[in-house]
Amino acid sequence: MTQPVTTPHPDRLAAIAAGTIVPAVIHPEVGAEDPVLEVADFSLWYGAKRVLHDVSLAVPRGRVTALIGPSGCGKSTLLRGVNRMNDLIDGVRTTGDMRLAGDSIYGRGVDVIELRRRMGMVFQKSNPFPMSIRDNVTYALQINGERNRGVLDAVCRRALEGAALWDEVADRLGDSALGLSGGQQQRLCIARAIAAEPEVLLMDEPCSALDPIATSRVEELILAMRGEYTVLIVTHNMQQASRVSDFTAFMYLGQVVEYGPTARLFTNPRLRETEDYITGRFG
Amino acid sequence: MSRPSRPANALLARNEPMVWLTGAGLVVGLLMVVALVGFVFWQGFATFWPGPVVSVRTTDGVVSMGEVTRSERFRPEPSVTAALAPEVVAAMQAGDGMVGRRLVRIGNFELTGEHFRWVEDFRLEPGSESLPEWAYVFERTAWGRFYGVPEAYLDGESVLSEDPAAVRAMLARAPAGAAAPAVRVRTADGVLKDLPTATIVRCYPANHLSTTGRIGVYASRWREFLSAEPREANSEGGVFPAIFGTVVMTLAMTILVVPFGVMAALYLREYAKQGWLTSIVRISINNLAGVPSIVFGVFGLGFFSYVVGGRIDALFFADALPNPTFGTGGLLWASLTLALLTLPVVIVATEEALAAVPTSMREGSFACGATQWQTIRRVVLPRALPGIMTGAILAMARGAGEVAPLMLVGAVKLAPELPVDLNFPFVHAQRSFMHLGFHIYDLGFQSQNSEAAKPMVFTTTMLLMSIVLLLNATAIWLRTRMGRSGSGSKF
C-alpha cells in the first residue's frame, strides 16, 4: 500500500477525463482496518459506455464509509454493483470482482439472492411496500421462510428501535406503511434494511428527498450505527459526509481519486483536486 | 390595455376558447348519458303504472273499451277522407289536415281477435266517451288482458253471487271452498264471458283505484316482473330466469377471464424480455379488442360447442347422442366465449397497472433478497391490485352488455331450467340460459304482440342497466376494501 503520495499530479483530472487509469491516493489508515467488503479492479459498462474504471476499494468493518464526487462519477453505480442491483438493467457488463467477507460477489455460480440477503440497501427515495409496518420491517425474514411470530415480532421491535422509529409506530404496527410521513418512511426503509442483520448496509443518498429535520434524524441514526454495522453511503452533501462518516472516498468519472479517513480528507487532503472539490471550487 | 393587442390571436392566446370548447365537449357527453339513462328510466318506470280504462263508441257502432297506450296526430289517406261527411272533412281541413287518434288496448283476444285498436277522433260518436265505473282489468296466464265488468261469481255451474258488491269482494280475495271458481264478466260489447279465477294473475277496478291501490298494483307488477317466470311469449310476466342467467354468466366469465388475463399480463410485463416480439404480441392483443363480437360468437360455436363439446359428448355422454349435451350452446361455452372477448381488456388494464408500480419498489424487494416471484406476489401484485380490479370491472361491464355472441353460444328465448339449481351437481354448465340482453332483443323484434312488448323493452333495458351498475358497484366496493389494507393508490 505504498502509494506515491503528496506529489501533485500535474493534471490528474484531465488524465482521468482522457480515460487514463490513474492510481488512487489511498491513506495508510485504510490499510490498518479490517475490510469486510473489497472491491478489486472493478469495471462496469452500460452498453458501450464505460462507467467504472478498474475501481479498487476496501470498506472497513464496523465503519461508515462515504462515497463523494460530482454527478455521474459512478458512485451510485459502484454502490449498486455491490449487491448486484445492476443485474436488473439490460446491457450491463462488468469485469473484476468484489468480495464480501472473502466470498466472491461476481464469481461464477454465485447465488445472487443469497448474496443480497447478506446486505441491506436504503434508496434515495423511500420505497415502503404496500403492506403493514410490521410486514415491511420483517419482509427480508418472511421471504426467507421465517414464520415464527415471536421471532418476527422481536426482530421487528429491534429493527424499529435501531432505526429510532419504534416509539412513533409501536401502537400501529398493523397499519399501512404508506400512511407514514416521508421521514418516517425512510427510517422504516432503514429498519427494513437492518432487520436481517446485514454484513454491509448500502445507502444511496438516503437523505436527498428529506427535509432538514428528517435528515438530521437519519444522520443521528447513521452515527449511532457506527461500530455495529458496516455502512457504505453515497452522498451529494459534503457536510453530511463529514458529519457521519469515518472514511471518505472521492470519485471522479468512474475512478477513485483519493480515499482516507474523513477528518484527514476534509481538513488536510493530499491532493489539490480533492481540496478543490471539497471547498466547492469545482463539481 | 397596455399589452400589445393582436386582435386575431388575442382570444386564442388567452386560452379561453379552449376552455369553452373542452367544457362543451364534456357537457355534450354528459347530456347524452343523462338523456339515455333518463329516457330509459322514465319509459321503464312508467310501464307498470295502471292507467284508467276508457270506453268509446265509434260511428260504426263498435264499442272499444281498454287502456289508452298511445295517442298521436296523423294525416288520413285521401280514400278515407273521401268517404266522410263533408262537414267532418271541412273541420279537418280547417286545421292542418291532421287528426288525432288513440291506440286502445282492448284485450279480450279470444273474442275480438286483436289486442290493440286504433280509434280515430273523427269516427267517435259524440258524447260516447266514458270511464265505466266498475270496469275491471284482468291479467291472465293466457290470451292477454281482459277488460269487462264482473257480474257474477260462479262455482262450477252454480252461481254463488250476483250482487256486484259481493262479487267484487270475492274477486279481491278468492273464496275458500269453491271447487272451480270463475267470474262472469260482461264486455263492452255486452258479451258475457266466464273467466276461471285460476287463470287470473291479477285484477283491479281500473277507474276505482285510489292512489294507494294504484301503488299496490304497481308494486305487485314489479314484484312479479323481478321474481316470476315469463309468460305469453315473454311479453308478460317476469324475467327472473333472465336476471339469474345474466348474473351467473357474467360472474362465470369474470372468474374465467381475470386469472388468465392477469397471468398473461404478468408474463408480458414482468418476465418477458421487452423487444419487438412483445410489441407484436401487445399490438395483437389490442387488435383483438376491436374484433366484432359476433366473430367471437362464431368462434365459440364452431370451436367450443362443436369441436370441444362434440368431443366431450362422444367421450362422456355417448348414450345421450344424437342429442347433444355439451355439443351445443350452454352456460360454459357462453362464459368462455365472453371471457375470450374481454381478455384484451383485462390484459391491457393489468399491464398498465403493473407498469405503474414504481421500479424503486421492485428494487427494494430485490435488495432484501427476494426472488422475482416473491417480489411479484408480495409487492407488485398488491400495489397493482386496484388497477387489475378496474380491468375486471371493465371486462364485466363489457361482458354483461354483450348479446350478439350469446345468440350463437347458448342464450335462448325461454330456458326450461336455471343453469344453477338445487339438483346435483348444482351447476349445470351445459344448460342453455336466458339473458336480459337477448330478452330485450327478443321482446323488441321477435314478439307476436309487439305493442304489448314494447314497454317491456324499456323496463328490461332499465333492469339490465341497473344490474350492470350493481355488479360494477360491488366490484368497486371490493376494490376500495382491498385497497385500504395495502396500496394507497385509488382512482
How would you describe the overall organization of this protein?
- Chain A is of the alpha/beta class and 283 residues long.
- Chain A is 35% helix and 24% strand.
- Chain A contains 13 helices and 11 strands.
- Chain A has helices at 12-17, 28-31, 75-82, 112-117, 133-137, 139-143, 149-162, 166-169, 182-194, 212-225, 238-244, 262-267, 272-278; strands at residues 25-26, 35-46, 49-60, 64-68, 92-100, 103-104, 119-122, 200-204, 231-234, 247-252, 255-261.
- Chain A has a 7-stranded mixed sheet with strand order 1-11-10-4-9-8-7, with helices on both faces. A 4-stranded antiparallel sheet of chain A has the order 3-2-5-6, with helices on one face.
- In chain A, a hairpin with a 2-residue loop joins β2 (35-46) and β3 (49-60).
- The radius of gyration of chain A is 19 Å and the shape is globular.
- Chain B has 491 residues and is an alpha+beta fold.
- Chain B folds into 3 domains: 54-123, no CATH class; 137-219, no CATH class; 240-487, Orthogonal Bundle (MetI-like fold).
- Chain B is 54% helix and 14% strand.
- Chain B has 16 helices and 12 strands.
- In chain B, a hairpin with a 4-residue loop joins β11 (230-231) and β12 (236-237).
- In chain B, α2 packs across α16, α8 (240-271) packs parallel to α11 (331-355) and α15 runs antiparallel to α16.
- The interface between A and B is medium-sized, with 32 and 24 residues.
Offer a concise description of the structure.
The complex is a heterodimer of chains A (283) and B (491). By secondary structure, chain A is an alpha/beta fold.
Layout of strands and helices, then pairs:
The complex is a heterodimer of chains A (283) and B (491).
Chain A (H helix, E strand, L loop, with lengths): L11 H6 L7 E2 L1 H4 L3 E12 L2 E12 L3 E5 L6 H8 L9 E9 L2 E2 L7 H6 L1 E4 L10 H5 L1 H5 L5 H14 L3 H4 L12 H13 L5 E5 L7 H14 L5 E4 L3 H7 L2 E6 L2 E7 H6 L4 H7 L5
Helix pairs in contact in A: 7-9, 9-10
Chain B lengths: L6 H7 L2 H31 L7 E4 L5 E12 L3 H5 L3 H9 L4 E7 L3 H4 L3 E5 L15 E5 L5 E10 L2 E4 L2 H9 L8 E6 L5 E5 L3 E6 L5 H17 L2 E2 L4 E2 L2 H32 L4 H13 L4 H24 L14 H25 L3 H9 L4 H29 L3 H6 L26 H11 L3 H36 L6
Helix pairs in contact in B: 2-16, 8-11, 8-13, 9-11, 10-11, 11-13, 12-13, 13-16, 15-16
